[in-house]
Write a structure and sequence with these properties.
Shape: elongated
CATH architecture of the largest domain: 3-Layer(bba) Sandwich
Number of strands: 19
Pfam families: FAD_binding_2
Cofactor: FAD
Helix content: 25-40%
CATH topology of the largest domain: FAD/NAD(P)-binding domain
Bound molecules: flavin-adenine dinucleotide
CATH superfamily of the largest domain: FAD/NAD(P)-binding domain
Oligomer: single chain
Strand content: 15-25%
Number of helices: 14
Protein name: FAD-binding protein
Keywords: FAD, Flavoprotein, Oxidoreductase, Signal
């Protein structure tokens, strides 16, 4: 349904995590606000979020967690090779704890705060997941009479004398267009992970990348902003979600809860390339972005398991805590069932052979036998003198049958394309704001990262989504008052 009015103080494009935080803030500040959402449901990728970043939150104070903010800033700037904007990152860090507190005041519940792999202890886990958080914010906004127009897609920003004057929107059910009058637009469309052409601008490896998002993050915000005169800012970072099962036949979400995927990508067992050579310390998966980058340095990647590994994971337990999977069981008790199921279905990503030599021949991996021999000698010596993997993950591959699982790389989100200032105003090529145009969430999060996502600061995109949505609306409120 088209919006009820023809004119609003503010139009928020996207009812995901950043758009919803903005909507509640708009209600707090009595802005006559419309939220348009091109999908039929609210929340965007916010629905899948585990937790949000915060520093100095009420929960951290309760847990006695203190973080030196200057040290954190320096660390993240180094991690980004100084491609992140220091002032913007600083503003996020300074405001992230208060933003968690604000979310809590709105009724959003958190179950814990802590680390994710080797990271700063900044991730605040949402009770009930991101889905519960977005529902809480949505209800809060609806109760405050914020209008939501569903299945309405933003198409073009309208400008008059360089100022935002309105937005052209399309009804997704009827295809009809309508213009809405407004002086303020907040782009909160979730980045570009679902737009293969834009992803290709960032990386040539896109055929081995699988978006694990909801399919709606198609880069609409950045493309509308570019047309309106925004700078084509660095295309930004893709959040590689580490290794993923390389399956061209089924959508990536079918593997999200898969124990085979967890074994092949999370357990730090042997990975080899298209020649069957080992190429990395597999416990690189402590940082899912680094793991993704490492996999993409090779033409193909296979995770190699033997029957001993499968039996151990099924019956005894994990070698390594599963850091990046929606399922984190103690044992992979469905692993054998999944292997049999996928072999019976002739899934191309899974190959089984009685011996290493047979596996090598089936997959054309000429160096595999030599690699396994070398790997087993490292295991015997309990020292990975080749790549430095932690010795606790050096487990032998000696007992047939053997299995190879081909890996691609999952992508959770893609950030960037738009440059914003510290007030989340969108900037043109000269660094000046396009009056009335704002961006938040993944659309603006390229400001915080370099060539890869800041997974060392866990929860940072969700933390940024809520902070930046609020920040933009607080700026609009301030401008209106002055
Ligand atoms: C599986 C998964 C897990 C994740 N886990 C975490 C996590 O634990 N911590 C973390 O920090 N981050 C996580 N993320 C990243 C996550 O993307 C963000 O933190 C957060 O959702 C970003 O908020 P957003 O508002 O920018 O985008 P979204 O929440 O995706 O919302 C964007 C909305 O805009 C709408 N939209 C797009 N184009 C238009 C248009 N033209 N007109 C109208 N509406 C439009 C979309 O339909 C969508 O509803 C995860 C992502 C995925 C996919």
């Amino acid at each position: 349904m088209f919006p009820k009015q023809t004119k609003y103080d503010l139009v928020i494009v996207g009812a995901g995590l950043s758009g919803l935080a903005a909507a509640v803030t708009a209600a707090e500040n009595s802005l006559d606000t419309l939220v348009i959402e091109k999908g039929r449901s609210i929340g965007g990728d916010g629905n899948y979020v585990e937790g949000a970043m915060g520093v100095d939150s009420y929960l951290q104070k309760q847990a006695g967690i203190t973080i030196d903010k200057t040290e954190l800033l320096q660390d993240e700037l180094n991690y980004s090779h100084y491609e992140a904007s220091a002032p913007h990152l600083k503003k996020l860090i300074d405001n992230s704890g208060p933003t968690i507190d604000w979310l809590h005041e709105q009724g959003v519940e958190f179950s814990k705060v802590g680390v994710q792999g080797k990271s700063w202890p900044t991730i605040h886990t949402f009770t009930g997941g991101g889905h519960a958080a977005v529902q809480t914010l949505y209800q809060k906004a609806v109760d405050a009479n914020i209008e939501f127009a569903m299945s309405i897609k933003a198409d073009q920003i309208l400008q008059k004398n360089g100022h935002v004057a309105g937005l052209s929107v399309q009804n997704q059910a009827t295809g009809q267009f309508r213009d809405i009058e407004t002086a303020n637009i907040l782009l909160a469309t979730g980045g570009y992970v679902d737009n293969p052409e834009l992803v290709k601008l960032r990386t040539p490896f896109s055929d081995r990348l699988f978006a694990v998002s909801d399919g709606k993050s198609t880069g609409d915000g950045m493309q509308m902003a570019w047309k309106a005169g925004a700078e084509h800012y660095q295309i930004g970072a893709i959040q590689y979600g580490g290794g993923a099962i390389y399956d061209k036949q089924n959508p990536p979400f079918t593997h999200m809860a898969s124990q085979l995927a967890a074994a092949a990508t999370q357990e730090a067992i042997l990975w080899v390339n298209e020649r069957g050579e080992r190429f990395v310390n597999e416990d690189v998966n402590d940082n899912m972005c680094h793991a993704g980058s490492a996999i993409l340095t090779q033409s193909r990647t296979f995770s190699i398991l033997d029957q001993g590994t499968v039996d151990h994971l099924t019956n005894q337990g994990l070698y390594k805590e599963i850091g990046n999977s929606p399922v984190s069981p103690d044992k992979l008790d469905q692993l054998k069932v999944e292997i049999d199921r996928d072999l019976n279905a002739h899934r191309k990503y899974l190959t089984k052979a009685d011996t290493v030599e047979q596996l090598a021949e089936m997959l054309n991996l000429p160096d595999l036998a030599e690699t396994v021999q070398r790997y087993n000698s490292l295991v015997n010596n309990q020292a990975d003198t080749d790549f430095g993997k932690d010795k606790q993950y050096l487990t032998p591959l000696k007992q047939g049958p053997y299995y190879a699982v081909e890996l691609g790389v999952g992508m959770a989100c893609a950030l960037g394309g738009i440059r914003v200032n510290n007030d989340n105003e969108v900037l043109n090529d000269h660094g000046y704001p396009l009056t009335g145009l704002y961006a938040a969430g993944n659309d603006a999060a390229g400001m915080l990262v370099g060539d890869t996502y800041a997974v060392t600061l866990p929860g940072s995109t969700a933390g940024y989504a809520t902070f930046s949505g609020r920040n933009a609306v607080l700026t609009i409120t301030k401008r209106r008052g002055s």
